[in-house]
Design a protein that fits this description.
This protein has 5 helices and no strands. With 165 residues, it is an all-alpha fold. The protein has a domain of 95 residues. Helix 4 runs antiparallel to helix 5. It is globular and about 70 Å long. It holds the Pfam family MARVEL. This is CKLF8 protein. Its main location: membrane. InterPro entries: MAL, Marvel, MARVEL-CKLF_proteins.
């Protein structure tokens, strides 16, 4: 006769308990920082796709704009997921208000530089075939920059109220 014994580990019990309590914050998208973040994602995607559809690799300035746009687009999607799933409540060791301020502040500064580089690099003489895409990407880069400026402001207010307590 052959006997099989099955036991349940505490790891699987904890895993199933934690996955059933996955939080989802729908109200975050109704806040101004949430709306700004969604706008950053949509328009940031527009910035880098407008450039990616051209021969940007021939001009180093557009390579810098692509780097900034794609880098902060990926990180903004990552932070949106963190805020929507309320992961920040599960990792209290991370100073989330400081992280948010540093992220939004650096995104604002680097996007501002990228938008200026983008706008100053757009000329009809470079390549008239790509002119409209580069001009549009420049416009949207400034709009995304203003969104990151707004989120930097809200992050600063949140950080300041956190440090005063």
């Amino acid at each position: 006769s052959h006997t099989v014994t099955t036991t349940s580990s505490s790891f699987t019990a904890n895993l199933s308990a934690s996955s059933s309590t996955l939080a989802y914050d729908r109200e975050f998208l109704r806040t101004v920082p949430g709306l700004l973040m969604v706008t950053e994602i949509v328009l940031g995607l527009l910035v880098w796709t407008l450039i990616a559809g051209t021969e940007y690799f021939l001009y180093p300035a557009f390579g810098w704009v692509m780097f900034v746009a794609v880098f902060y687009w990926v990180l903004t999607v990552f932070f949106l997921i963190i805020y929507m799933t309320m992961t920040y409540t599960r990792i209290p060791q991370v100073p989330w208000t400081t992280v948010g301020l540093c992220f939004n502040g650096s995104a604002f500064i680097l996007y501002l530089i990228a938008a200026i580089v983008d706008a100053s690099s757009v000329t009809k003489e470079l390549d008239s075939h790509n002119y409209n895409s580069w001009a549009a990407s420049s416009f949207f880069a400034f709009v995304v920059t203003s969104c990151y400026a707004g989120n930097t402001y809200f992050s600063f207010i949140s950080w300041q109220s956190r440090t005063l307590q």
